[in-house]
Amino acid sequence: xxxxxxxxxxxxxxxxxxxGIVTAPGxxxxxxxxxxxxxxxxxxxxxxxxxxVAWARRDDNILNLIPEEPDDIYTTIxxxxxxxxxxxxxxxxxxxxxxxxxxxxxxxSGMDLMYVSTVPIGSGLSSSAALEMSTAMxxxxxxxxxxxxxxxxxxxxxxxHDFAGTPCGIMDQAISALGQDGHALLLDCVSGDQTLIxxxxxxxxxxxxxxKVKHALNDGGYAARRDQCYSAAEKLGVKLLREATxxxxxxxxxxxDYTDKEKMRVRHVVGExxxxxxxxKVLEQNDFDAFGKLMFGSHNSxxxxxxxxxxxxxxxxxxxxxxxxxxxxxxxxxxxGGCAIVLVKADxxxxxxxxxxxxxxxxxxxxxxxxxxxxxxxACIIE
Length: 383
Ligand code: ADP
Ligand code: MG
What we know:
Blueprint: H1 3-14, E1 20-29, E2 41-42, E3 44-57, E4 62-66, E5 75-78, H2 89-103, E6 111-117, H3 127-143, H4 149-162, H5 171-178, E7 183-188, E8 194-198, E9 204-214, H6 221-236, H7 246-254, H8 260-284, H9 288-304, H10 311-321, E10 326-332, E11 337-345, H11 349-363, E12 369-373, E13 380-381
Parallel strand pairs: 4-6
Antiparallel strand pairs: 1-3, 1-13, 2-7, 3-6, 4-5, 7-8, 9-11, 9-12, 10-11
Helix pairs in contact: 2-3, 2-4, 3-4, 3-5, 4-5, 6-8, 7-8, 8-9, 10-11
This protein binds adenosine-5'-diphosphate and magnesium ion.
The site of adenosine-5'-diphosphate has 19 residues, from helix 2, strand 6 and helix 3.
């Protein structure tokens, strides 16, 4: 939908023109996977897929939430009542943000809020953070206020924890709030420190390849890995694996005190944190060849030591590795499905995309969905 389309549809649905239009993007994580809860670093970038909210004031105290899909549940929030979660799943992300804004004493009265999104929903590209952050932007714009961007991210993260029931880290909301054109964002998951890292994609493209699968985690997936990381850290005498050195990893691997799984998890986490630190150095020198090698290294480690990849993700990375002009590829996000990313020279991007699509389709009984993206800016007011 173009901006004009959005204005037209808003008028059709509410009988008035929007007073403001805001947006917040989805994201991919370039490197630094399963490092957040180990106190490590992550390196996400905002993508040029985003959620847009058009809004206008109402005469009452009702927030009228108008979703994009006709079959999504249209719902309201009565500001005169305590804001609580309901069975309308998508609106809980919004409710959480409204609750958070009330806690910060941001003045609110009735509004019509219409949501339009180009972020694929539930694919691991953080449509949820885009939904929260765009809501926060709309509320602040209507109130004529601003808020520190990291504070907004924390507010939206809390919404996701308490109202949507997803105990996520801070990455998704932080990058949606803080992304900048042409940059990735290095986030220190212990201190919250944020550093913009140049990621000049003028001669390269980042292909986002959605496997469109989400495998069930029959072994309790994340929780099991988290526990293995924490038990290994405890045995090592460190609070979080972030503090473990490469020498300690060697000692862990050689020791009988650790289970095989603990050894593998430690090797991934410590290696991945180092790869993320190294990625920042090589990106600052615009060295995409070196960055691509780190991407492949990250994928192999997630596949072999962390065991969170799947055949579909592995296949995309395997095909990408045979394509001309590809610097690197890896799964991104939590794993077991979702998306892989492929960094490729701009001139080779179309051929690479076509090859991955064809070989993926020939291997599995469905298509993958691929789009090219570049580091985009974070949440902003459109008008
Ligand atoms: P991801 O954030 O990776 O897309 P999540 O499972 O965290 O996946 O969030 C997806 C959920 O967020 C959807 O099931 C839906 O409830 C909600 N959501 C996100 N964006 C929208 C939107 N534009 N309209 C309605 N619901 C949305
Ligand atoms: Mg999400």
